[in-house]
Write a structure and sequence with these properties.
The protein is of the alpha/beta class and 592 residues long. It is built from 19 helices and 21 strands. It folds into three domains: 144 residues; 241 residues, P-loop containing nucleotide triphosphate hydrolases (Rossmann fold, 3-Layer(aba) Sandwich); 93 residues, no CATH class. α9 runs antiparallel to α10. It is elongated. Bound molecules: adenosine-5'-triphosphate and magnesium ion.
Length: 592
């Protein structure tokens, strides 16, 4: 191999300067001339010459600065220039670099090897070169080739080059990932672009929680004419969907909720009678579930029955039983006169709250069971529609939560996730096809502990469990949020991969800063200046942490940023559409 074939160019036009000082995972470089540093930007890559011409340490620029009279230099040329120059202040142009990898043009009988991390300390005075243009493309293809082709997931391109930024698709999902960035930075587009690649696989198994219905454009129901959909569309049924018996509607029957979830929905913990209400609720639900087993000749299941078992019961029957308690009487101490029963009057408010929930049309997906839901087999079909990968349907399932009332949204997402996680848990190890949950707008239902009330904590417990234990059962999370500082730290700290887009808020930057390894933490400084669709990616799925331009999806989510100025000159705000919006508001469902 001749030097011309080398990946890293050591030509003069790439030369930056020499190593002036070394720390454990950082190096300070003294630039050759003031002109050189003008061509450098934070997040550029450099190669530091190693012990042989074939060996380099690869670093990422963290700071470029002009320091005046910096202590890093030993009296520069003082002896030669004598007294007259002695007081002259000399400017030093320095570049601070975080060491992220080691590269060998030749290593033993192998060629072009890149390894993560610095395998030795750089030596003072060694030459440093900027990795740009062809060098950059060459190095990136070496890095990409480290990931076997069949598990390559292309995230985007490096800088202005055409070289692909490749992640290891296995590792990206194995230990959870976070996709963070301010509103409009390009998260939803990135999700769509990731899904497009995943959709090419035979048995993709991804469930996307879509809070605004913006991913409908990826499905048969909303795709642009002439384009091919990549996902199935499901929607948590709104009032109109129930009336029209929409086939994509999803119900979350009340009996799927466990005791804690149901009580989070119904119980007012500040009520004096809360303990009585909770105990009567538990008692009756258990009995109703037991009754179901008896009526359906399933008594062999009685031993395993708990209050949380997903066994159907009628919410009306529960109401009747609670009302009987609430109006109940018993014989007084004398054994003759009737006095108030033990729970008389104590459940009134609980019943009131339950009735209000049942009567609220927006909650129909909880209380109005779809046809056949009381059949014992229904639940397995329900799980199958989300977890089975079939040749005639897409493995990516978009679940639209846009019409779920916001106060119960965390509970509903939590119930569905807990149910699917449990099914995956109970599957035989060898039968488990891995499954990923994409949690868009995660700050809404995965809040930090101090910000969350009792209701949203219910979902949090489920997701924290998935974050901690999901790896063993092949369940992964992709946490997407515009407010990382509002997202559960437990969950974020379990994310081994990070795609950080533009982030302007200092608190959010702080959170991302903490997720980065020490050696790279100063990359946080580029977060506010990233362009739309540009990101810093790091983690075990990417060999070389770097700043990349993310790919645009072919199917764009309906999350377009509005052109205010242009629209104000061309887009009339029509009265008709306002009238129909008011009607939709009243009905709590979109008129289509
Ligand atoms: N990779 C990209 N390249 C170019 N433009 C992009 C890219 N990604 C996003 N955009 C632009 O940014 C706009 C907003 O992107 P997107 O909807 O993905 O933002 P977001 O981060 O999901 O915002 P929010 O947090 O509000 O949901 C898009 O409509 C598109 O115009
Ligand atoms: Mg979005």
């Amino acid at each position: 191999m001749t030097t011309e074939e080398y990946v890293v160019s050591t030509e003069d036009d790439c030369y930056i300067g020499r190593v002036a000082s070394v720390d454990t995972n950082r190096a300070l470089i003294l630039a050759e001339s003031p002109e050189v540093i003008q061509t450098l930007t934070v997040s550029d890559l450099v190669a530091i010459q190693g012990a042989t011409p074939q060996e380099f340490l690869v670093g990422i620029i963290e700071k470029v600065k002009r320091s005046i009279g910096s202590p890093i230099l030993i009296e520069p040329e003082a002896e030669e220039n004598d007294e007259e120059d002695f007081d002259v202040v000399i400017d030093h142009d320095v570049v601070q670099v975080a060491l992220i990898g080691t590269y060998w043009e030749v290593l033993g009988d192998k060629r072009q090897i890149f390894k993560r991390g610095a395998k030795y300390f750089p030596r003072v005075d060694k030459q440093v070169f900027l990795i740009k243009e062809e060098s950059l493309e060459n190095l990136m293809s070496v890095v990409a080739s480290d990931t076997p082709e069949d598990i390559q997931l292309v995230l985007g391109t490096y800088g202005n080059t055409q070289s692909k930024a490749v992640a290891n698709g296995d590792k990206l999902f194995q230990r959870h990932a976070a996709l963070l960035g301010s509103t409009g930075s390009g998260k939803s587009w990135t999700v769509a672009s990731l899904l497009e690649q995943a959709a090419k696989l035979e048995h993709t198994n991804i469930i996307l929680f879509d809070l605004h219905g913006e991913y409908k454009t990826l499905t048969r129901e909303g795709v642009e004419a002439g384009k091919d959909p990549i996902a199935e569309y499901y929607k948590i049924a709104g009032p109109a969907d129930i009336e029209n018996k929409n086939s994509s509607s999803v119900f979350v029957p009340h009996w799927l909720l466990n005791k804690d979830e149901m009580l989070a929905l119904l119980l007012d913990r500040s009520d004096n009678n809360a303990p009585n209400q909770s105990s009567r609720f538990t008692h009756h639900v258990r009995e109703l579930k037991q009754q179901y087993l008896v009526e359906n000749n399933l008594t062999e299941l009685t031993d395993g029955l708990t209050i949380d078992s997903p066994i159907p019961y009628s919410i009306r029957h529960l109401l009747d039983r609670l009302s009987t308690d609430d109006n109940g009487t018993k014989l007084g101490a004398n054994g003759k006169t009737e006095v108030k029963g033990d729970w008389n009057g104590k459940l009134t408010r609980f019943i009131g709250r339950l009735e209000t929930k049942i009567d609220d049309k927006r909650n129909s997906f909880l209380f109005e069971s779809p046809e056949g839901a009381n059949e014992y087999e229904w639940l397995a079909t329900y799980a199958n529609q989300f977890l089975e990968t079939k040749s005639d349907s897409f493995g990516i399932k978009v679940i639209d939560f846009s019409e779920v009332p916001s106060d119960i949204l965390p509970i509903v997402i939590g119930v569905l996730t807990r149910f699917l996680y449990n099914v995956q848990f109970w599957r035989a190890e060898e039968d488990r096809t891995p499954i990923a949950f994409v949690c868009d707008e995660a700050h809404i239902y995965l809040p930090t502990k101090d910000a969350s009330d009792a209701d949203s904590r219910i979902a949090l417990d489920t997701f924290e469990k998935v974050a901690k234990e999901g790896r063993k059962y092949g369940v992964s999370l992709l946490v997407v949020s515009q407010r990382p500082s509002d997202v559960s730290r437990t969950i974020l700290s379990q994310c081994n991969n990070l795609i950080a887009l533009r982030l302007s808020n200092p608190q959010d930057q702080q959170v991302v800063h903490k997720m980065m390894p020490d050696s790279l933490s100063s990359l946080t400084s580029v977060l506010p200046i990233l362009d739309t669709g540009e990101a810093v990616v790091l983690g075990d799925a990417v060999l070389l942490p770097s700043r990349i331009k993310l790919n645009k999806p072919n199917l764009e989510p309906a999350s377009a940023t509005k052109d205010f100025w242009r629209d104000w000159s061309s887009k009339e705000s029509k009265g008709d559409s306002i009238i129909s919006a008011v009607e939709s508001l009243r009905r709590q469902s979109r008129l289509r």
